[in-house]
UniProtKB/TrEMBL annotation:
Residues 120-285 form the Carbohydrate kinase FGGY C-terminal domain. This is Xylulose kinase. Keywords: Kinase, Transferase. One of its GO terms (molecular function) is phosphotransferase activity, alcohol group as acceptor.
Length: 286
């Protein structure tokens, strides 16, 4: 919003309503300007603890409350299909539309990570560790995000910018293969914990817990004995150790995590799941 205000003031002056992409679709279906708390948490305009728009942030961004959507819990009904939308979709106006949720909050609900003390790891293009809580908590160093959860409670989340995308980059661009499983076959159990090659997964900077857009990836510890499999293993382990960085912040806050669910494309790899369990020293369940 501030960028638009400073760089495109003529467009900023025309803004009538502010909404996220999914909420625009809901608006077209119902005519209701709405947003859920979990997705709104990432807008920097929400008072996450008190579940209302922040007057301080609205003032900073020069945004009026009437421009912002009405807030709902993810499971609440925001409206019904309009006659126009019902006709276009082949449905009736009795069809109810719920507020929905942000991507990671929805994934957490899908893996059963709700209530107090649940944990979910997502190995997608980016990677997240998502910890559900009934109480609002803040990491004083801002290494983890404090958001509202889709279950009506709260959650802490660490987000690394490059997770499964690191493996995709290594396989597709560097090795030049789509057969990820075959490349992982030489990495047997006896190799785990014995690799002398290390990888830092900062292909696009980093977000949690090292908020640094200039951070960059690298391999360390290579020698004349280093093999392709060693480097493949290092990529998988590097992502796991970056996830542990976020996990350690949560532990420092007194959160006791003994197991986690895992989802995302990277979770399809049994080897990567095993590495994640070893590095975090907790049970990892699909």
């Amino acid at each position: 919003m501030l960028w638009v205000k400073e760089n495109e003031p003529e467009n900023f002056a025309k803004i009538a309503k502010i909404m996220l992409p999914k909420d625009y679709i809901a608006y077209k279906m119902t005519g209701v300007h709405s947003c859920d708390y979990s997705d709104a948490s990432g807008m920097l305009l929400l008072d996450v603890k008190n579940k209302c728009w922040s007057k301080e942030m609205m003032e900073i961004c020069d945004v009026k409350e009437e421009q912002l959507p009405k807030l709902f819990e993810s499971y609440e009904v925001t409206g019904s299909l309009t006659e126009e939308a019902a006709a276009a979709l082949g449905l009736t106006t009795n069809c109810k539309i719920a507020a929905g949720a942000g991507d990671n909050a929805a994934a957490a609900v899908g893996t059963g990570t709700v209530g107090d003390g649940g944990c979910n790891i997502s190995l997608g293009t980016s990677g997240t560790i998502f910890i559900s809580s009934k109480e609002f908590g803040v990491d004083r160093f801002n290494a983890l995000h404090s958001f509202d959860h889709a279950d009506g409670n709260f959650h802490l989340m660490g987000c690394m910018l490059s997770a499964a995308s690191c493996n995709k980059w290594w396989m597709d661009e560097i090795i030049g293969t789509k057969d990820y499983g075959k490349e992982q076959e030489p990495i047997t159990d006896d190799k785990l914990g014995e690799n002398n090659v290390y990888y830092l997964p900062y292909l696009m900077g980093e977000r949690s817990p090292h908020n640094n857009p200039d951070a960059r990836a690298l391999f360390i510890g290579m020698s004349m004995d280093t093999t392709r499999a060693d480097m493949t293993q290092a990529v998988l382990e590097g992502v796991a150790f970056a996830m542990r960085d976020c996990y350690e912040i949560a532990k420092d806050l007194g959160i006791n995590i003994t197991e986690t669910k895992i989802c995302g494309g990277g979770a399809k790899s049994p080897l990567w799941r095993k590495i994640m369990a070893n590095v975090l020293n907790i049970n990892v369940n699909i």
